Structure formats: C-alpha cells, structure tokens
Automatic annotation (TrEMBL):
InterPro entries: AB_hydrolase_1, AB_hydrolase_fold, AB_hydrolase_sf. Residues 274-378 form the AB hydrolase-1 domain. This is Alpha/beta hydrolase fold-1. The keyword Hydrolase applies. One of its GO terms (molecular function) is hydrolase activity. It holds the Pfam family Abhydrolase_1. It comes from Azospirillum lipoferum (strain 4B).
Amino acid sequence: MSTPHYVTIGQGQLRVWRSGSGPDLLVLPGLIAAASTRADQLARDLPGWTVTTVDLPGTGGSSGVWAEDIAGLARLIAEAACALGLPSCPLLSFDLAGPLAVALQDGEGGWQPDAILLAEAAAAEGWTERGRTPAPLAPRDDGTHLAVLWAHLRDAHVLEPRDARHPAAQGAPLPDPAALDAMLRTAAAAPRRYEALWNLCLDAMPNVTDQAGIVHVEDLGAAAKTLSAMLAGRPDAKPLPPTQPVADPLRVWHDYADTPQGRVHLRRAGRGRPLLALQSAPGSSAPLLPLLHGLASGWEVIAPDYLGNGESDKPDREVDIGMLAEDALAVADALGLDSFDLWGTHTGALVALELTVRHPERVGRAVLEAPVLIPADFSADILTNYFPPLVADRWGLHLLQAWNMRRDMFLFWPWYRQERAAARAIGVPGAAVLHDWTMGLLASGAHYDRSYRAAFHYDTRARLPRLTWPALICAGPADMLVDGLAEAKRLAPAGTEVTPTPATVWYPGQAADAVEATIARYAAFLRGDAPAADSHPIA
C-alpha cells in the first residue's frame, strides 16, 4: 500500500503518495485514476523504483493550490518536487496529464525530468478529438452532481475514447468500484477545479503529440521495459522530508502522524500550547475548521481524523471510546507533546473525557461539548437504525445514499426518523457546504460507523463523575444533544463548569456574533480565566 504525505510550497500544500523502493520515479496519475490507486498499481507493475505520485493541483489533497494555465500548474508540481528533494529523474504521465509533463521539460519551476514517458495518451487524444468534457460539476442541492461526476469517470474507462456509443474492447483493466470511488473523491475535493483542469489539459493535448524527447508507451508493460533501461547507476531514493507548516501561522495546514495503529491525518493551525480538537463522527475533522481558525491565535490546534474516518488509515478492528482515546494519546506521542489541552464535541467529547480520566497527567484543561447523555432505549434505537452499510457501488448508487443521509441529519434527529416530531430547526446548509460534509462521510467509507457506534455504547454516566481535572461541559442551543447538560450538571464532580454556549461553532449557518462569543468562552476557560457570570458552574 502507498503512503500519503504532504509537501508545503509557497501557495499551500500538495499531497503525494509514495510506494516501492529503488531510484526515484515521479508520476502524474492523469485525470481518471486517483494518485493513490496509481501508486499501488505501479508498486506492483514497476518493481525497482521508488514511485512518488502527485495529487494534481486542484484535486484531492492538492485541491488548495491552483493556477489558471498549464505552465502555472506545472510550476506548482516542480516546486513540490524541489521541496521533496527529488533529483532529476524519469517522469511517467498518464492520459490528460501529458501537457503538464511536457511543460515540466523547461525546468521553469526549478525541477525538470531527465526523461518523460506518456502512458494512455491515445485515450486522451480520442477525448480531445471529440471534445469530451465533463458536464458542469458545481454542487447541487439534490447531490446529483456526484452522479454526473461518477458517470464521467466510469465512461472514461468503459467507452471508446473516439466513440461514446461503444465500449472499448482493449485497454487497461476496468477499475473496480473502490478505485472509481477513490477517483471520485479526488475529483470532488474541488469539483469546479477538476472540471477546469480537465478542460485546460484537453485544450493543450494537441501540443503533446509531436513533442521531441517524449516516449509514448502503450501500456505498463512497455513502460516497465523502457524504464528498466534507465535504472543503472541511479541512487536509491531518499526518505521524504517532514511536512512543514505553511507560512501563515493562522492558516490551516495538513500533516500525518504515524502511530502504532496506523497513519493519522491531521489538520493543524496556530502556535502556542497544543490543543487536540476531537471531531464528531462519522466523517472527518473538516467541519472543525471554524474552531481551528478561532483558536489558532492562542493555541496550536491539532484536529485528527479518527483512524477509520476521513483521510486516516482504516484498520480493520472493532472500535470503542477507550481505543479512540488511546489513539489520540498516540498522536500526541508521535508529535512529541508531553502535555496538551483537549476540546471534543459529541463523540469527541467522550474521547476527551476518557483520555482525561485515563491520563490526567498529560491533560491540562478539557472542553467537552455535548457529550452523549441520552436514554438507554434511545441509544439502542440509534444503534439499530442509524448506520446502514455504505459501500462503493459500480453505478455510484452509494453517492446519493451518502448525500441524503448527510442532508437528513440536518432535517431530523435522528436522521432516519422521518416524521414531523423529529424535525430540526437548524436548517439545511447550502450545496457547497453539504458537499464538503458528504465528502468527509465518503472518505470514511465502509468504516464510517465504527467510531460513531462507539459513542452510543459508551457509559458516559459512569465515566463523567471520574473527572479529576478542570473541564468545561457545554452545548449550543441548536445542538441535538443540548438537553444532556441538565444531567451533566448532576453527574459532574465539583469544580466542573457546565454551561450553555451561544453557538455550536462547527454547525453551518450559525450567527457570526454567536460563534465569536462561543470561541471567546472556550478561550477563557482554556486560559484559566474566571468563569462568566452566567456559566452556572457546579459548586
């Protein structure tokens, strides 16, 4: 399996995937297969090379960097190659990434390949000949843009490039649903940028065909034969350098932490005392961006995706809150954090609680937002009905399932209780926000439910009285778990502050002044300021 890694450049960050061993080979994966899928494939089919495969600018983990032309996009890739310490080495490019490979020849970005191989260029030439472009991919309120994108990707593999009426009888093996899903998530990280990237490359493709010094290879077997002649005398690749923060300390950046249970994806921002921010389930920590932005001026805020969720590894294991607490501690250990504060919401509140109970010597202060305190029969009902299987489907049927699950979570509590009495007042967010939330769920895939189930199995009532360290228990008025504050007041030990807050800062559509006041409340508690007059602390 390939290993993901972020590289920081002037504009932001690109993600790469590293696999294999031996001399360096840089790979541009094209526009119909994910970089992770290509890296895994090439580790099998091109032995003897250390393969570094790039999420192209505007896609996947590189979606935050962009340029408006081919030359600018190539400069971003070259800058990343320099930052990674790659020597001049062969470059293997697939399908529509050919123009980017050609643009790297001039070395304008500070790096250039010493050989360029183009694979699957015939398909790209066929798409160019008939002007094959994606339908508009801007997020729609009904989520059907995801089905449009899926059809675009699947058809690119299935159909004759020059004739959309017939299946292609020859070519690389067709991708399975998991590989298509990986590419959909890569393209859908910023769907309009993917659409623009496709069109830029399509327009530039006619300039590639007759370029001098370019080796066209029909398939990976031919690529392996050509590359084998280039192996002799090349040194083995060096390890990738650690990911560096972006220049602006208040800006969120991405990183990974290696733990005994797997590689954990992190969102990070700020400087100061470390604060681990622990997400709700079932998606990623991306909804916590308002929290990271709000507290980055006083803390180094680190928001991991749970193992099994988001962009973290997906170990095949049963999950409970104790395990997630130990995973969070392992992240702190990997980052060299001897002491840290905690902020957790919903599932994350339980993880923060358990970590504080188990390892009080490592924790300073803890904010527990809306810990799960609901009746046992309600928990049982949720465990029975809340978590239908979510598995990639050959026709992309799982995409509308994920979209509508996420959408209904804003409409009803719980989402599967489709009745008037279950209606929520929070409101459905706009299509772009709902798209991002859905992508977090899709990134968790078939594992999405494991951390979420753990929250409803956890005995909050037994663990909450065992707090021995300063904690703030709170919830915003729109939070479906806000009613649990009354019971939290009865259960929490003396000295614990229990208070409502003006907002749930990671919910969409919250009033700006309420979010600002809530962030200020968190900051005051984490600094150790006296509680506000209306905080109703437990005496």
